[in-house]
Amino acid sequence: MAISPALLLLIVSCSFAVNVSGYNFSLAEATVAELQQALKQNTLTSRQLVEYYLSQILEINPRIRGIIEVNPDVLTLADKADMERLSGPTNASSGLHGIPILLKDNIATMDKLNTTAGSFALLGSVVPRDAGVVTKLRAAGAIIMGKAALSELAHYRSFTAPSGWSGRGGQALNPYVMSEDPCGSGTGSATSVASNMVAVTLGTETDGSIICPSSVNSVVGIKPTLGLTSRAGVVPISLRQDTVGPICHTVLDAAYVLDAIVGYDPNDNATIAASKFIPPGGYIQFLNANELQGKRLGIVRDQFFVFPNGSYKAQAFENHFQTLSKNGAILVDNLALANINMIYSNESETIALLTASPIRTLAGGISFNLNYSTLVAVVANMQNLIENGIVKLMTQNNLDALITPDATVTVVLAIGGFQGISVPAGYEPRLIEIAYAFEQATKIRKPPTFLVSSNLFSLRFSLICILELII
Asked: Is 379 domain-assigned?
């Protein structure tokens, strides 16, 4: 992790609790709303908050390697935010103003930070501009804290390398059980939040890289609809599937981030159509603990609730199904998803992912023309599988969301361009309503335990209790 010697000298101890309106809360598990209240009441400064996170990074990061690089200007940015708050500019009212945020290392920043996707091959390269989402974060007053570790090149350097490994960052570890898979390529974004080295991060997803690390590290991840957030300035894998989304402690925090980063970006044409569906007033308005009432939630047991060895995953979730029902949800149980075996055995996604713009020479142009019909057929095949599978299941059963116990569903999300949310135990507004209501009904999240090993694979599920919701 790159922390300059000068920066180390500036780190001071910071109290672990803050008093706001007569009650204390821990900085470790503090929500963005709690931090904002403390900042506005002058019981906490952005500098103190950054110093606290720096102390956490120094203590924890050598153990789990979730952060590749810390912004050498982070304390200067914190002081700037504190001054802005005192002078009262317009962005001081933003939900993220003065809040440190960690970015996955494939998201470009035009500052002193590197953008390498975890690869030494990109170390020292200069980006032409901030990524579109970073421009929006800066406009909202967020503090760019640094870059999170990831599976190198978003796990496309090698299909056999372990999740969370990169040349620059080494092997990132799961803070709950450090011998278990941290999952996905957004590993550092999830593990850094889970271990309280920062409250807010951004990840990217092509197929599972937000949902999967969020699920196994007991945090909230939102994979937005394709085009809802800009991919400009993000090291690409596939324009058909790439998306940028928040990974945070709570649904509330994730909604704050989503509000800040969605919208049109002239450097990403996919945002033109998607921006029309952003609700006026943003996503925070959909946080209502009573929104499970009347929601139809589909359960595909045989295909998503069974381990590869044939044993049943769902036993730990039966209590949560009861919680959903008690809070007014309508469970549509024992559904079957058509084409699921074809989707998971089909190579269409891989072929489409690996087909980028190959034309650099005349020979390349000829080759592309010869193979173009194959690509068209591949994309059409994927679309057909999705239309006759998940789309038909959702529409015929009038479902608001589909519930699964882990990240197995991400291939369906990926090739369909669908949104998803992973929380401990239509449209984004509906998912946020359901996820927030479930979160508030269960309060299931626990801080990490940093166990060295565990022989019980099911322990993760009994501790985390993941729900992934799609529409």
From this structure: no
Helix or strand run (H / E) with residue 245 = strand 243-248
Indicate the pTM of the whole model: 0.84
Model pLDDT, residue 118: 94
The one-letter amino acid code at 268 reads D
**pLDDT higher than 70, residue 425:** no
Active-site residue flag, 453: no
Q: Please check whether residue 173 is in contact with residue 164, taking contact to mean a CB–CB distance below 8 angstroms.
A: yes
Range of the domain at 145: 24-286
Distance CA 57, CA 107 (A): 20
CATH number at residue 275: 3.90.1300.10
Q: Is residue 456 part of a domain?
A: no
Which residue of the set 209, 218, 348, 422 is catalytic? 209
Which position among 119, 166, 185, 238 bears the catalytic label?
A: 185
158 catalytic, yes or no? no
166 with 181: CB under 8 angstroms?
no
Q: Where are the alpha helices (DSSP H) in 25-73?
A: 32-40, 46-64
Strands 296-299, 330-332: pairing kind: parallel
In a domain, residue 195? The reply is: yes
Asked whether residue 268 is assigned to any structural domain, the reply reads yes
What pLDDT digit, counting tens, does each position of 179-219 carry? 888 988 889 999 999 999 999 999 999 888 999 899 889 89
Rg of the chain on CA atoms, in Å: 22
Measured CA angle at 344 (ends 338, 348), to 5 deg:
105
Across 171-181, average pLDDT? 90
Distance CA 49, CA 234 (A): 28
Secondary structure string (H, E, C) spanning 316-357: HHHHHHHHHHHCCCEEECCCCCCCHHHHHHCCHHHHHHCCCC
Burial of 5 (0-12, 13-18, 19+ CB in 10 A): exposed
Which position among 46, 104, 136, 218 bears the catalytic label?
104
Strands 420-423 and 467-470: antiparallel
Identity of residue 263: G
Q: Is 104 in the active site?
A: yes
